[in-house]
Amino acid sequence: MVRIPLACALAALLASASAAAQTIPVTITVEASRPAGELKPIWRFFGADEPNYATMKDGRKLMGHLGELRRGDVFFRAHNLLSTGDGTPAFKWGSTNAYTETKDGKPVYDWTITDRIIDSYIERGVRPYLQIGFMPEAMSSAPAGTPYQHSWRPGFAYDLIATGWTAPPKDYAKWGELAYQWTLHNIQRYGHDEVKKWYFEVWNEPNFRTYWAGTQDEFNKLHDYAIAGIRRALPEAFVGGPDVAGPGGEFMDAFLKHVVSGANHATGGTGTPTDFLSFHAKGIPRFVDGHVRMGIREHLRDVDNGFAKIAAIPQLKNKPIVIGESDPEGCAACPGPQNGYRNGTMYSSYTAASFARIWELASRRGVNLDGALTWAFTFENQPWFAGYRQLATNGVDLPVLNVFRLFSKLGQEKLAATSSAMQPLDDMLAKGVQGNPDIGAIATRTPTGQIAILSWHYHDDDVAGPDAAVRLDLTGLGKDGARKVTQWRVDKANANAYTAWQQLGSPQSPDAKQYQLLEGASHMAPVALAPLAVKNGAASLNYVLPRQGVSLLVLE
Fold first, then answer.
1. Where does the record locate the signal sequence feature (predicted)?
2. How many CA atoms lie within 13 A of 401 on its CB side?
């Protein structure tokens, strides 16, 4: 028998007591017999500046992973689909050479590269959220001598991307015909029934001088001619816009007025056909006292202000809304210490917490929220874990992508759920999450009758903190007996290739064995918990939710 000295035993006891005191007690309550409305799968939208990455090895692999989330119901938006060039990608750049002109100004259409991009989507169960942009070089009205393709790279001033592709067209009729011919070609290639399921929108952030060199009226004209061309080829096309930066301010107000009552530049009628409305919402992370502090407050304020603008117009308040870019900050390729959250669990926990509040804001405003698009994909042939805002690095998924896998397991019937540590929405709109952490939950019933409970542990400050000791109380479960419970986790120790890479010594040239290890570490592994004993329709279970952790419990 080994005897432990009394002093050591006391020290161990005190350490254990101290650790227990450091956990945050949380009670989550789910009423399984009490429906609480619909939970739309708004998470199923993604996008990127660089369209050509979708045809490359890691891009194709990641596109396949996105399609697996909900085959045929995931959508991808990309810039530069009409930009002139040879299809070589670069930071914040891509091209297709879809439109050129002969010496005497006659249009030449070449869909080779656009087909390759859209094929990459369709073959993997993803559909286009098709952006009509940017301006082909032969059509650009930019002054003579203006560079067409920019040479921006990470670290350069952001406004250097604003070159000749941002200009209005020389000829709006040619612009409208381009939209018509592209739509007609897509119908011929992919079929009428397929293309009518796509989203169509014009340009990107026209209220931001970096993306649009024209005036408000010139954008309205650009939009009208493009939509008229699309609808001429496909009268049922699902069209919308304008994907403004932020809620859009006065620019968005003027656009919405034009949609409802303006003179249509292309048709001469009143207003513009509009099936959905779109704006962008971004957070503002900062580097404070040696660590990243996220800006979820600013992100949610953008969302709320955008909803309010649309809800205030009677003719538009019921239109589907897509937050066409919804992210922790504004530039996926931009470096900086404030963006050091991207590789690990700060990004994944932020995603869970922000989506929960976006659903809540939509319910509060009474708007028809259709989607919240994550502007993140991958950057091909870049250093491992380079710190870009992306979903995978060199073909290995990041923790944030696993949160979307958790979202995909939720049902659309929401159940009544509360958490004793979930921060009030108004507090988050006022000050973010800088006091107590936000430890919240969403409960749903799946089409097969399972109960799926998502919980997260989020704080704006990327610093260590105590775990949450969660007690989950369930009622309304029906008949007594044992129920199977499965848990999926995304945290520092689970479904996290970044932690595994650090443990390997952060290699920039992993060998085949190390790559296999990293890929394995990125996968979620379901854990069967002890069967849940249901008595009188109620049951309880306990689990630990680490800081920056996300969990999904599924009850059969």
1. 1-21
2. 30
Question: Of the candidates 157, 67, 49, which has an alpha carbon nearest to the alpha carbon of residue 120?
Answer: 67
pTM over 0.90: yes
pLDDT by position in tens, the chain (length 556)? 333 333 333 333 333 333 445 899 999 999 999 999 999 999 999 999 999 999 999 999 999 999 999 999 999 999 999 999 999 999 999 999 999 999 999 999 999 999 999 999 999 999 999 999 999 999 999 999 999 999 999 999 999 999 999 999 999 999 999 999 999 999 999 999 999 999 999 999 999 999 999 999 999 999 999 999 999 999 999 999 999 999 999 999 999 999 999 999 999 999 999 999 999 999 999 999 999 999 999 999 999 999 999 999 999 999 999 999 999 999 999 989 999 999 999 999 999 999 999 999 999 999 999 999 999 999 999 999 999 999 999 999 999 999 999 999 999 999 999 999 999 999 999 999 999 999 999 999 999 999 999 999 999 999 999 999 999 999 999 999 999 999 999 999 999 999 999 999 999 999 999 999 999 999 999 999 999 999 999 999 999 999 999 999 999 9
SS (H, E, C) 410-461: CCCEEEEEEECECCCHHHHHHHCCCCCCEEEEEEEECCCCCEEEEEEEECCE
Length of the chain: 556
Beta-bridge mates of residue 555: 451, 485
Single-letter residue type at 516: Q
- Taken in order of first residue, the domains within the chain and their CATH numbers are 23-37+413-555 (2.60.40.1500), 40-408 (3.20.20.80)
Pairwise CA distance, residues 175 & 230, whole Å:
11
Amino acid at 425: L
Amino acid at 519: E
Token readout for 164 is: 């000749």
Q: Which residue has the tokens 């954008």?
A: 219
